[in-house]
Amino acid sequence: MTDLFTRYAWAVPTKDQTAQTAVHALWAHVIQTFGCPTRLHSDRGGSFESALMYQLCKCYGITKSKTTPYHPAGNGGVERMNQTLLHMLRSLESERQQRWPEYLPELLQAYNNTVHSATGYAPSYLMFGRHLRQPVDLNLGVERESPCHDLGGWVKDHHQKLSFAYEMARKKMRAAATQNKRAYDRSARALPLVPGERVWIRDRNRQGQGKLHPGWSSEPYVVVEEVTGTVTGKIWGDVTQWKIVFLCFVLDWTVCWCIVSILVA
């Protein structure tokens, strides 16, 4: 779990991925200590899309949202944190990797107290408003905070520093988002969806065909509407209900038809 503004991360080892386990982890490790988030964004895993999770969000006034199918970039902040955490776990010795839950708190401590490239600040500083004392500080005799002689002046100065840090973090994240968008747009293709148009969609159900699988649906789908302001659209299949599909998983029916015609000729 990750707070997308501060990049503060939580990781809870569990024995299963049931809805009850996911709800308890969110409630016990996040809500109880840090309060209720305004939004909970997740993938389409059953534990996060369960009725129990939606009931928890309803009780605490949390807006629940989810990514489009097979599109992990829709929750890129969490995916990136998971990747970093896995790299840290792989750095452990083989014997210690067997007992990875024991070392998870220490790895999270290192992650949350390291300057994040997306914000320019340590996640713990943006979350708590101060630099947490670390073992290295105790060994070196370093004092993170200077003695306070004027409480009112300290509060005012601290508020100014934190406001400045938040503003700088926002600017840095906006700049990073703009840079990522430019990099993505270099290879992206625009495909406006016209209601009534037939399209192919990416078929993720390979069923053992491996490299010979065409990768696209065997029958074309019909566009219902393009979701305004997003990169998704509603489509309708011959035997299925309408679904929302990410545009990068949609192919114009006429393009594929032309390719087939040329190959046959």
From TrEMBL:
Listed InterPro entries: Integrase_cat-core (IPR001584), Retrovirus_Pol_polyprotein (IPR050951), RNaseH-like_sf (IPR012337), RNaseH_sf (IPR036397)
Protein name: Integrase catalytic domain-containing protein
SUPFAM superfamilies linked: Ribonuclease H-like
Single GO term (MF): nucleic acid binding
UniProt KW Transmembrane helix keyword: yes
Membrane-spanning intervals of the chain: 244-264
Keywords for this protein: Membrane, Transmembrane, Transmembrane helix
Cited Gene3D superfamilies: Ribonuclease H-like superfamily/Ribonuclease H (3.30.420.10)
Organism annotation: Oreochromis aureus (Israeli tilapia)
